[in-house]
Amino acid sequence: MAAIPAAVVDTAGPAGSEEIHVAPSLPLTQKLKYGALAYGITKLIKTPLNLITAIKTDYLGSSPTNPDIIKAFPSRPQLPVRVFLPKSHSGEDPSDKKLPTLLTIHGGGFVLGSPYDNDGWNRRFVQLAEEGGTPFCVIALDYRKAPSYPFPTAIHDLEAVILDLLKPDSSNHGDDLPIDVNRVAIAGWSAGGNLALAVSQLPTIRPLVKAVVPMYPVLDFVTPSEVKATKSRRYKPALGGFRGKKTDFLMGLSGMFDWSYVEPGQKMGDPLLSPVYAVTVEDTAEGKVTKGREKFPANVFVIACELDMLGGEAWRLACKLGGKKVPGVEDRLGREEVGEEKGKLELEDERFHWQVAVEEGQVKRRYMWLLVPDAIHGYDQDGVGRFGDEELVSDGMEKREEVMKIIRGWLMDGVL
């Protein structure tokens, strides 16, 4: 990512000349470094792992988190969806009873990742929803990866598959699935959170989706990674273990991810690339006015992690949408102290949680903010155990359960 002086980056949108906010062409040596890193991780490590996972889950059926249905569509036959159903729909025609549906998008810096990564989360969400008396269908989506397929390929892959699933007049839509097309939300993790907000801005998709739930999303390609990691990111050495480290583990990969996804010459403030700039807050004679809320579905629930270099941009978007005071790119989120109770969220402290309703003409918009305390990027993923920190895993899994319950409750409380 281009080195942009922090002074020219403001809280309302990209400032300064257009040239400052255009993706640069990197030196050949840097391109070779990033290209080799991307190739090594994707082809030599991730592809074999995905193949092993596919054999175990889709062919041998050895995982309790397996999807109930795997289905491909003509628009993108190489990108099948993974469908998770409640027990109430097992052993019967799944299309008989329509269910509120959550579409999920995996992360991985636009380069790595697969829908398998979230099988555990998707299955658990379905279980908790059914236990709570509101059965859900969850469908994991896929998209082609950078650097072979840079921005905006992934957005349009998702658009095509979502239309196949939801568009009533499409001969390819998922009418054999229990999707209540009038009650659909979309969620995503990290890069998937970015893509959830991006695809939901498209005129073809926005009317079909009632809510968006971006979880620790990357939202700002304008602000340099160094600023995010050293200024707005909260560090807590007192936690010890992996969470107590003094650098963010994403920094080692952020340059490669950015180079892979964003081609030289691309305007980095494009709202489809950097959704935080889809909404602006302007000073007028009547006071501050928020513009751009209509670009997203009417309901947005932004979730961030306190110990994450991407937390600041999530905070900024939530505050813009919710009409709160918008922090600067160097404002540090959260608090200095370690939370008193392991595995617990902070729901009474506005730094960590709030929700508001906004009336705009005939449209009622609802926004929610949740900052997961003492949590790193990806705290809720099944693979977080690779960091070798048992306290991180146990704390994260407890918080994951609570976050899932809050998401379900919010969606069913008048959103869907």
From TrEMBL:
Keyword check for Protein transport: no
Transmembrane spans: none
Annotated keywords: Hydrolase
SUPFAM superfamilies in alphabetical order: alpha/beta-Hydrolases
Start and end residues of each Alpha/beta hydrolase fold-3 domain: 102-327
GO molecular function, one term: hydrolase activity
Domain of life the protein comes from: Eukaryota
Record protein name field: Alpha/Beta hydrolase protein
Species assigned in the record: Neurospora hispaniola
Species lineage: Eukaryota, Fungi, Dikarya, Ascomycota, Pezizomycotina
